[in-house]
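We close this part of the discussion by returning to an individual protein. Part of our work consisted of pairing the sequence of a single chain with a tokenised description of its backbone. The amino acid sequence and the backbone structure tokens for this protein are reproduced below.
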Amino acid sequence: MKKRILAITLCIAIAFSLSACKKKEEQPPVPQTGPVTGPIMPPGQMPPGQMPPGQMPPGQMPPGQMPPGQMPPGQQMGKPGMMTPKGKSQVVIPASVKGKWNAAKIIIEDKGSKTKQEYTIKLNSDFKIPNSNIKIRVGEFLPDFKMDGLNLTSGSNEPRNPALGIRVFDNDKQIFPAPGKQWGWLFSKVPSIHPFEHPKYGITLKEGIKKG
């Protein structure tokens, strides 16, 4: 009987010993990784077509920045918020426009009676508003107004941005544009740009009249 108990005890000890050895031999599983889909690049190099963080491709600007010499919308020449160079401007009539326009239609508003009257006035002539002391000196008509440095000119002979240069006098005193400036400009498509302001009269450009 004692021999049987000893044999059973010995078997149990051997079983525990084998179980401990098996646990020691087990290794942790190796993490599995997906297949490499792109070329392996040396340290410090980027795959073709991929830019380092914070660097933009050539010719592409970060958001909110414009390329040198290019102005954002709303700050183009002849538009609201335009950036005007310092110095005295001059009107330059290109050959494609010179002599092609001979008059302009303007609208005179009487703010007191709330009436409007249309007049056709020749370029480079004077016009007096009836029953008033207001005289309008009409200058040049630019069908496609733009600024080129200090030059006020026309980009083409098409009425894309029609503008008329005028000076307004009240009893021979210039009231538009401000004293010291040669011409004020009326824009038919955007009359709110530098408008003529007067307590009684309003002056706007309707269109230019081609010669012939």
